[in-house]
Please model this.
Amino acid sequence: MFERITPYPGDPIFALVDAFHADPRPEKVNLSIGIYFDDAGRLPALPSVRAAEQRILAEAGAKPYLPMEGDAGARAQVQALLLGAGHPALAEGRVATIQTIGASGGLKVGADFLKSWFPDSAVWVSDPTWDNHRAMFEGSGLAVHTYPYYDPASGGVRFEAMLDTLQGLPPRSIVLLHACCHNPTGVDLTPDQWDRLIPVLRAAELLPYLDLAYQGFGDGIDEDAYAVRALTQAGLRFFVANSFSKSMSVYGERCGALSVVCGSAAEADLVLGQMRATVRRIYSSPAMHAAKLVAHVLGDADLNVMWRAEVAAMRLRIATMRLALHDRLTALLPGRDFGYFLSQRGMFSYTGLSAAQVDRLRDECAVYLIRSGRICVAGLNAGNVDRTANAMAAVLGR
Ligand code: KET
Model:
């Protein structure tokens, strides 16, 4: 019956985490997965989230199913976080939001929804992107292509080439965009570039799909929502999947949402209805604890302030590590330009290290990063940044 099933080679990111944990070398450094670690190398439990959990425990009671679309309080908080409280689009009722199983669940529900209602549309993702984007959309039966994005020569965005490609796409093509903290490159569009992109999306009648997994890790919680707000302001209809995995350090709780900004309340009702139907067919309804966490942390004024400060501290620590790695590498290899560590945004840096150099870092120095050369800067700390810089300099210098 099952002999013909091919073996799963494993996911490149999760497999590397397993390899890291199995490595007996005590000095090992984990820069693989997109997880924020504190300066002691620990996964933080944010005080705002812990306070929310205490309240949730205190009021623990019956545990009915949530509705397919999730908890109303959590959904309203997500909308306010994305657009800013009191945004006219919210008052107009033209945003349809469902609580999802992390951003991944949101991306998947959106992909299935799009396959049902836009079956002839193809998906266009940045070159490069998070590998799972392609896997998820292809898994829903949609064709996936790439548009030009990262320019290895300049370390910037091939913005004109990106616009050229996008303006030539068939109407209703789906364009996956990283709202901030581009994974894997750390290279984002500037607000000016978003402002130039939006008319192109509109003129070509494209369907933007934003992935916002790192809100708060770029320039700030509101700053990182620039794309969401600018697209809404421009009157575009679009999808946005957002995550709290990183910003609340609740990876295993699977807190996320999918929102669709629509043209009217009537449209939003139709979209919400079919998103509910899509959820019912996949996992029926989302998780209650995840909903309560989001609703409490964002919905309680004190916890919200606390959380914003915690996110700012994580963002600042990453910036400090970027600077430390930059300075150390510049001292070790004075002829080279490591300015990209400072200009890139979010958890990730694209180092330009080749797969062979990445393999050497792992084998010879116990420094783990994925083979694209992406490092998770949030895995660096005061105790390992010098060692990491020395190891990188050694493989770069030879
Ligand atoms: N979108 C992006 C762009 C992303 O980098 C991740 C996770 C997710 C969505 C998933 O978010 P969640 O809400 O937890 O479902 N990325 C890291 C971990 C992973 O690969 O799953 C990473 O790239 O290392």
In short: The chain has a mean pLDDT of 97. Residues 301-332 form the longest helix (32 residues). The pocket of KET is lined by residues 13, 33-34, 102-104, 130, 183, 211, 213, 243, 245, 251, 256 (CB under 6 Å). The chain has 15 helices and 13 strands.
